[in-house]
Specification:
Distance between the termini: 25 Å
Mean pLDDT: 79
Structural class: mainly alpha
Largest sheet: 3 strands, antiparallel
Shape: globular
Helix content: 55-70%
């Protein structure tokens, strides 16, 4: 019992770290229209919304976005972005006009709310893993799938589909699920129960 609990805690901690890296390094999970054009990560959706609505000053958002800009430059073998002006060179949504919540935001409310929960859940999950990351990820997936089904998005935007879910979303979903310790413990108990029943049946 103690061993399975220890394993569950270890798996939960590792999954939380993986989810945090996926979010903070801005690994593309989807494509969806946002305030500044096209966003590919929950952090981009969150940052564009916060900057456009002036909920937080740009100075407060920059520390969250810089690791992703740095990682993007590193993997593409580009120059390291300057911290003071990387928002203008790497992100188009900083040029969007400040405005309150509009109809497009309400149309993609699940993606917006899910992105908020995913970002906050990824940060809090490093201290105390919980279900916030999982709920956020599921909300994003539901919002994207709903739009694909309801609107049948086959329109083109800059040569690509407007709404698209990348395979990396599966990594985010699995790591978000495994970051919940209770769910991991239930998974262990279920596997143990099946292992005990097999010899009895034999």
């Amino acid at each position: 019992m103690a061993s399975s609990k220890k394993w569950a805690n270890t798996i939960s901690s590792i999954a939380s770290c993986i989810y945090f890296l996926v979010i903070i390094l801005q690994i593309p999970l989807f494509r969806v229209p946002c305030r500044g054009g096209i966003c590919k990560t929950p952090l981009e959706v969150t940052a564009s919304q916060l900057i456009a609505t002036k909920v937080f000053p740009t100075v407060a958002v920059k520390p969250l976005l810089y690791p992703g800009a740095f990682a993007n430059a590193f993997f593409k073998n580009k120059d390291v972005p300057n911290y003071y002006n990387f928002l203008r060179s790497h992100y188009k949504f900083t040029n969007s006009n400040p405005s309150p919540v509009n109809s497009d935001d309400l149309q993609r409310l699940e993606v917006l709310a899910g992105s908020y929960l995913s970002v906050v859940g990824a940060i809090i999950g490093l201290i105390k893993p919980g279900r916030m990351s999982l709920f956020g990820t599921l909300l994003i997936i539901w919002g994207l799938v709903r739009e694909l089904i309801m609107r049948k998005s086959t329109y083109l935007y800059a040569g690509n589909k407007v709404v698209y879910i990348y395979p990396a979303m599966s990594i985010a979903l699995v790591s978000a699920f495994l970051s919940v310790r209770r769910d991991v413990r239930k998974l262990f108990r279920s596997c143990k129960g099946q292992a005990v029943m097999k010899p009895k049946l034999v």
